[in-house]
Amino acid sequence: MFEVCVEETFAAGHALRGYKGKCENVHGHNYRIQLAVEGPELNDIGLLVDFGDVKRAVREVVGRLDHQFINDLQPFDTINPSAENLARYFYDEVRARLDERFRIRHARIYETDTAWATYRPAT
Fold this sequence. Notes:
- It is built from 2 helices and 4 strands.
- It has one domain: 6-pyruvoyl tetrahydropterin synthase/QueD (Tetrahydropterin Synthase, Chain A, 2-Layer Sandwich).
- The chain is of the alpha+beta class and 123 residues long.
């Protein structure tokens, strides 16, 4: 199995509804999104997928969130903009933009260099 991974960064604000502590207040992060794509075979020139195609898909999603208050955006106007929900959001949004012959292994969102959440579908 081969795996290709890309990372992008963006800055955004959010507030966690129902959280009892500092994070219920409006605050921001310099997020880092890491997305890994996997597949069993390479194409005829030895690539699983073009890094540029994966980056383009991730950047489209980042462009929607960058320098925004995430709570105001769908679906986060109804679900909490937690790191866990953001990871799943990236997974779903990028999945819809990539060729179906690739499987997204995981989407990992970092709120800081030492704190992250990962989403991967049940196998």
